[in-house]
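$ ./design --mode recover --in tokens.txt
reading tokens...
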């Protein structure tokens, strides 16, 4: 039987305080976000300042860059240690709208591109994703970011997987070869629905850097209505997301 004294009461209180600190630090700190006037706030009404690092996942392999170099958690830990609380995770539209791309496994994607050394690196550092489809691997990345208390902005960077950006790559402006507005709406709705119950996905950037020879300010203003409709569509699929509109020539994030 333990005899309660002033000394061991103090020790007990200190131990409980330490335990509470440990539990608090290991619990996810991410909450849904919304706007209040000009501010972004969480469910408690506290102002949230997003500090986002860009993590490309829109290039030809359609996988977050660097997973062939280091384990995921090591990368995520470093992002947090650098003071970031958010990742702007890019994705190509075809990941959501083209089954022949999204259904490829990570192994198939890298083999098709002749990236055998990179594939070996992924097998060494992140072996659990080798046989995942590309869309499953994208979900895995988002989930792992959440496990590391990092919020995610889903950024539709481009349509066809590849380097961005050129003024003549066919991905730049409404009506370009690879920028079909209806397909774009379909892809955004699918992605919003896919992450509807994913707490750390807090926002969506509708498109990166509108550009190209077909763009002009007049056309952009006409498309503002399309952007508003798109935001409404996204919110129908995922009511907790905030969205950003791409201005003429560059993105907001």
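writing sequence...
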């Amino acid at each position: 039987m333990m005899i309660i004294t002033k000394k061991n009461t103090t020790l007990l209180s200190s131990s409980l305080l330490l335990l509470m600190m440990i539990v608090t630090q290991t619990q996810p700190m991410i909450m849904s976000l919304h706007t209040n006037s000009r501010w972004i706030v969480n469910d408690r009404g506290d102002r949230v300042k997003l500090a986002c690092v860009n993590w490309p996942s829109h290039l030809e392999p359609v996988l977050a860059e660097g997973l062939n170099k280091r384990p995921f958690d090591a990368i995520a830990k470093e992002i947090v240690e650098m003071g970031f609380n958010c990742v702007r995770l890019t994705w190509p539209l075809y990941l959501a709208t083209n089954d022949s791309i999204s259904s490829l496994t990570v192994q198939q994607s890298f083999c098709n591109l002749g990236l055998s050394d990179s594939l070996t690196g992924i097998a060494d550092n992140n072996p659990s994703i080798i046989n995942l489809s590309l869309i499953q691997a994208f979900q895995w990345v988002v989930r792992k970011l959440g496990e590391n208390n990092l919020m995610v902005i889903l950024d539709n960077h481009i349509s066809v997987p590849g380097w961005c950006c050129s003024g003549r790559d066919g991905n730049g402006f409404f009506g370009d070869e690879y920028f079909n507005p209806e397909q774009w709406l379909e892809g955004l709705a699918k992605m919003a629905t896919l992450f509807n119950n994913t707490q750390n996905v807090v926002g969506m950037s509708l498109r990166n850097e509108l550009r190209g020879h077909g763009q002009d300010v007049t056309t952009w203003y006409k498309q503002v209505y399309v952007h508003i409709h798109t935001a409404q569509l996204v919110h129908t699929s995922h009511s907790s997301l905030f969205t950003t509109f791409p201005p003429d020539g560059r993105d907001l994030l």
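exit 0
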